[in-house]
Amino acid sequence: MTALCEIRGLSVAYPGASVPALDGIDLDIRAGERLAVIGESGSGKSTLACALAGLLPDGARVEGGMRWAAGSPPRPGRDLGFVFQDPAASLNPVLTIGEQVGEGARRHLGLSRRQALSLAVEMLEKVRLPDPGKVAKAFPHQLSGGQRQRVAIAAALAAKPGMLIADEATSALDMVVQAEIVALLDDLVRAAGMTLLFITHDIALASGFADRVAIFRKGALVETGPTRTVLAAPAAAYTKTLIASHRDLATPPLIHEAAP
Ligand SMILES: Nc1ncnc2c1ncn2[C@@H]1O[C@H](COP(=O)(O)OP(=O)(O)O)[C@@H](O)[C@H]1O
Ligand SMILES: [Mg+2]
């Protein structure tokens, strides 16, 4: 697999912060892979996502950087989709689900209102919401947390981006729904040949489906490698600690067999 993005020596410091949020990160993101970025809260995962999307706040000091195979960075909302932890925060309470799911695609692909709505229904079906036509007419508060996260995924994928960043996208959900959403994400990105950056604090969740893992701690990349290799023989003491804290990781619950 060729690198979609080569991150080299990337450091990010927020204004007024005494320590950098990211400190000299070297990491390749390969086209079509499912890469899990794993680390505890504050380890710099979301900062990495923002840097990739060109969405760091003004005043953030950036050193090093990234090279995209496409020659230019992906346009958020068009080439790069996002799903966040809290779908309620990214959904507008006074707009119907259908309007919101089709909105990005309408803007980026120049669709008419009617075309955007029909795309929205198609996307709601893709994320396996029952009765997508009815869901399209509903408002966010009428759905459960898991359903809202499916809506957020539908919205993120509507413009058919080549890459998706899911930042703690399932962390607010209970375990059963979490597993369903992860399986759905995995299916959708595989079917579309998309690249997935799956950000999580949960190594057990990520190791169930990610091709590779990148372990972050305090702004540094601790180690990276194929999921099975890292789980079977972690190089860093920190990774060993992470794995040891999950008893069930001895036999990772693989959703799909990893490609050889
Ligand atoms: N907008 C910001 N301004 C200042 N500091 C920030 C900002 N966003 C994150 N940080 C700090 O940067 C560090 C990394 O944060 P973050 O990337 O959000 O970590 P994670 O997503 O792994 O929890 C933390 O110490 C956090 O407090
Ligand atoms: Mg975060």
Account of the 3D structure:
It is a single chain. This protein is an alpha/beta fold and 260 residues long. The protein has a domain of 87 residues: P-loop containing nucleotide triphosphate hydrolases (Rossmann fold, 3-Layer(aba) Sandwich), CATH 3.40.50.300. The chain has 10 helices and 9 strands. The strands form 2 sheets. Strands 5-6-7-3-8-9 form a 6-stranded mixed sheet, with helices on both faces. It has a 3-stranded antiparallel sheet with strand order 2-1-4, covered by helices on one side. Helix 3 packs parallel to helix 6 and helix 4 packs across helix 6. The radius of gyration is 18 Å and the shape is globular. The structure holds adenosine-5'-diphosphate (ADP) and magnesium ion. Magnesium ion binds next to helix 1. Magnesium ion (MG) binds next to helix 1.
Topology:
Layout: E1 3-13, E2 22-30, E3 34-39, H1 45-53, E4 61-68, E5 80-83, H2 87-90, H3 97-109, H4 113-126, H5 132-137, H6 145-157, E6 163-167, H7 175-192, E7 195-200, H8 203-207, E8 212-217, E9 220-226, H9 227-232, H10 237-244
Parallel strand pairs: 3-7, 3-8, 5-6, 6-7
Antiparallel strand pairs: 1-2, 1-4, 8-9
Helix pairs in contact: 3-4, 3-6, 4-6, 6-7
Could you name the key traits of this structure?
260 residues; Rossmann fold; 6-stranded mixed β-sheet; 9 strands; 37% helix; globular; binds adenosine-5'-diphosphate; binds magnesium ion; ABC_transporter-like_ATP-bd
